[in-house]
Design brief:
This protein is an alpha+beta fold. It contains 16 helices and 39 strands. Bound molecules: adenosine-5'-diphosphate (2 copies) and magnesium ion.
Length: about 675
């Protein structure tokens, strides 16, 4: 076996690969861009090499820089992780040429599965069921429309070079086909430099079920069972589990056999995932699944497979790459209990899951939970930047049954404390507790269908407001030096000598004016809004653990100060409070509609308005791209455009004024 391993990736997957490599006695070598000089994966590795500036194209996607680091560090092998260069056949080839082991399949196997049309054709030949549709060379719009008719609506247009759900359009109405085709082709051209598409049947009640396969270089291949990844937004996975709810053993066998046949057909080696789409309208059936694509790498959601098999897939990858035989035969692969994974993202579920950036002012989790695993890419204090994927990490729970695993995971998440960027933590907690999800009544439309129930309300409850009032007073007392012992369990309220006062919070742009009144007799009691809530015995530790009794219930929350106020985290839900200083007159009018500002740093990809234009509220003004996602920015009110300050290709900062409006006519 090689003695050292370079990990050509970042974030959680780099950290995860390092963990196993270290356990196996290998020296670990990280690479990093300028944005990652102090990143978690760099700190975890034995040695780290700079490969370039922050943008991925100048660092993590640069083969020459990575190979140079490998050569200078004397790395025996390179693990590509997922994303970046992991499915790049030329990179695998370049490693081989440089005499460095590429931990992945042979270049020709990567190529065989690289394009969805060729892969489907190849699978048809290997007798693997594929989604019915057209995947030939003819790209004429009229011809493709005819094919769509023949397949029968609804159909799905897919970029042949696609990935990450890009260049994909579902079409229900034949009249929309031409328009959707043009837009899919445009997006595919921009994202992959290849406009070609295929058209296939849109499967009814689709469930995404994939098979983990493994092959060695001695002709052996096995399946490590299935994962269900049906919980998706924008065709991207958020929650994954193994085994698939309601999976009949004969279907598991049929899918496993098909996936192994697929791997053998292309002379596969290492870890791979064969993705299938299943029709769940009448339950799962052995003849109701079709090949979608094969990902020739380790998958984000591999930990659920590790949990139910008790195996370390990265260890298998390294051993197979070193020429060893597969450690187990098919009949010996365990399947124990049930595992569920959630992807914790820096994103805002209330804003269509738009990515969020910033410093993680708080990132804590319960300790000593034996059935929960965390694969984190960042630590408290680290930054989620606009340059890479906004995934903070993954949390995985294993249990005897699905219900136990779901409950364990939900309980764990509810006790996590995350503040800084907006995250989907509250959304994940709601989803894991949703009745239909617990029943296993899932398909890829689940999130869209139940969105309203899954996104936590923006409006804070009276309880949270009461806790916020207590936190505010405690923090102020401490700042004034009136609370010399931060560890004291209970102490008196300090209300600046006044009998009652009003505190002015803004939450999600909405003002909350609260009247706070101390009790004359009981110094540990305050009344809020004339007794609407009563808070007693509040205390706050130096690191921001707040406890207080609100209307009889003893509650705990985390208090994290921020520039204009603080964040309060209660049962996993983070609520941001802006504290209005009575001396600042203008803070509340921050939600002015006089300008369209950039919500985050990013690149302008389209400008849809011009100076002098009259726009209606809701009109699309600018399209920007940030963190691999496009976002259309809309007019907040009717108005007349005074100036457009950006053009296509501009890089903008958060808060930059993109479009200015004329004063509204009264
Ligand atoms: P999966 O089916 O496992 O979600 P995807 O193909 O969507 O796989 O991508 C795998 C992971 O790699 C995702 O988390 C994605 O965000 C990340 N990824 C994909 N492409 C890139 C890239 N160019 N740079 C950074 N991360 C990427
Ligand atoms: P990507 O390369 O972007 O991962 P996939 O072909 O794997 O593309 O498809 C991504 C997702 O789109 C799937 O997980 C599934 O939810 C949905 N999807 C793909 N093909 C179909 C189909 N024929 N019918 C219904 N949904 C589909
Ligand atoms: Mg896919």
């Amino acid at each position: 076996m090689f003695k050292s391993l370079l990990i050509a990736n970042r974030g959680e997957i780099a950290v995860r690969v390092i963990r196993t490599a270290r356990r196996m006695g290998l020296k670990t070598i990280a690479v990093y861009s300028d944005a990652d000089a102090n990143a978690f994966h760099v700190a975890e590795a034995d040695e780290a090499w700079r490969i370039g500036p922050a943008p991925a194209a100048d660092s993590y996607l640069r083969m020459d820089a990575i190979l140079d680091a490998a050569q200078r560090s004397g790395a025996g092998a390179i693990h590509p992780g997922y994303g970046f260069l992991s499915e790049n056949a030329a990179f695998a080839e370049a490693c081989e040429k440089a005499g460095i082991v590429f931990v992945g399949p042979p270049p020709r196997a990567i190529r065989a599965m690289g394009l969805k049309d060729a892969a489907k054709a190849l699978m048809e030949k290997a007798k693997v069921p594929v989604v019915p549709g057209y995947h030939g060379d003819n790209q004429d719009a009229g011809f493709l429309a005819q094919q769509a008719e023949k397949i029968g609506y609804p159909v799905l247009i897919k970029a042949v070079a696609g990935g990450g759900g890009k260049g994909m359009r579902r079409v229900d109405d034949p009249a929309q086909f031409g328009k959707e085709l043009a837009s899919a082709m445009r997006e595919a051209g921009a994202a992959f430099g290849d406009e070609r598409v295929l058209v296939e049947k849109y499967v009814a009640r689709p469930r995404h079920i994939e098979i983990q396969v493994f092959a060695d270089s001695h002709g052996n291949a096995v399946s490590l069972h299935e994962r269900d990844c049906s919980l998706q937004r924008r065709h991207q996975k958020v929650i994954e589990e193994a085994p698939a709810p309601g999976m009949p053993p004969e279907m598991r066998k049929a899918m496993g056999d098909a996936a192994v046949a697929a791997a053998k057909a292309i002379g596969y080696r290492g870890a791979g995932t064969v993705e299938f789409i299943a029709d769940a309208s009448h339950g799962l059936k052995p003849d109701g699944f079709w090949f979608m694509e094969m990902n020739t790498r380790l998958q984000v959601e591999h930990p659920v497979t590790e949990a139910i098999t008790g195996l370390d897939l990265v260890e298998w990858q390294l051993r197979v790459a070193a020429g060893e035989h597969l450690p187990l035969a098919q009949k010996d692969i365990p399947l124990v209990g049930h595992a569920v994974e959630v992807r914790l993202y820096a994103e805002d579920p209330a804003k269509k899951f738009f990515p969020s950036t910033g410093r993680l002012a708080r990132l804590r989790a319960p300790e000593n939970m034996p059935h929960v695993r965390m694969d984190m890419g960042v630590r408290e204090g680290d930054e989620v930047t606009m340059f890479y994927d906004p995934m903070i990490g993954k949390i995985i729970a294993h249990g005897e049954t699905r219900r136990i695993a779901l409950r364990t995971l939900r309980g764990f998440l509810a006790r996590m404390e995350v503040a800084g960027p907006k995250t989907n933590l509250g959304f994940l907690i709601e989803t894991l507790g949703h009745d239909a999800f617990i029943e296993g009544d899932i398909d890829t439309g689940f999130i869209d269908r139940h969105l309203e129930a899954l996104v936590p309300p923006a409006e804070p409850s009276p309880r949270i407001l009461a806790l916020a009032a207590a936190a505010h007073l405690k923090a102020r007392a401490r700042a004034a030096g009136a609370d010399p012992s931060p560890w004291s369990a209970t102490d008196q309220w300090v209300l600046g000598g006044r009998r009652a006062e009003t505190v002015d919070f803004i939450v999600g742009g909405v003002p909350h004016l609260m009247k706070i009144e101390p009790d004359a007799a009981d110094p540990t009691l305050i009344r809020i809004d004339d007794g609407a809530s009563v808070v007693t015995n509040a205390s706050m530790t130096a690191d921001g653990t707040l406890s207080a009794t609100v209307d009889g219930a003893r509650l705990a929350a985390a208090f994290v100060p921020s520039s204009g106020g603080f964040t309060l985290i209660h049962e996993g839900i983070a609520t941001e409070f802006t504290v209005v200083n009575p001396l600042d007159v203008d803070v509340a009018s921050d939600a002015d509609t006089g300008a369209l500002k950039s919500p985050m740093p990013g690149k302008i990809v389209q400008v849809l308005t011009e100076a002098g234009a009259t726009v209606k509220r809701g009109a699309a003004l600018v399209v920007m791209e940030a963190m691999k996602m496009e976002q259309t920015l809309l007019a907040a009110a009717d108005g007349k455009v005074a100036a457009v300050n950006v053009s296509v290709g501009d890089q903008v900062e958060a808060g930059a004024v993109l479009v200015a409006f004329e004063e509204a006519e009264k």
